[in-house]
Design brief:
The protein has 66 residues and is mainly alpha-helical. The protein is built from three helices and no strands. The longest helix has 14 residues.
Length: 66
């Protein structure tokens, strides 16, 4: 019996590392709101996925260190 996937793919980034975090931390709240408004117009499916994810993490983009 042959396995279809013999090796799992490596992680895209380190666990706990948030890609693009440096770009988000330098933005003001109105800039982030404008970006979300643009995303809702340009890619409504992606906007919905982002909003669903934010509901899942209670709006915390950066995981809290416990």
């Amino acid at each position: 019996m042959n396995a279809t996937a013999t090796h799992s793919a490596p992680a895209a980034h380190l666990i706990g590392d948030v890609p693009g975090r440096d770009r988000l931390l330098g933005r003001t709240q109105p800039e982030l709101a404008d970006a979300m408004t643009w995303l809702a117009w340009y890619a409504p499916g992606t906007f919905t996925a982002v909003m669903d994810y934010l509901d899942h993490v209670d709006g915390e983009l950066i995981p809290a260190v416990v």
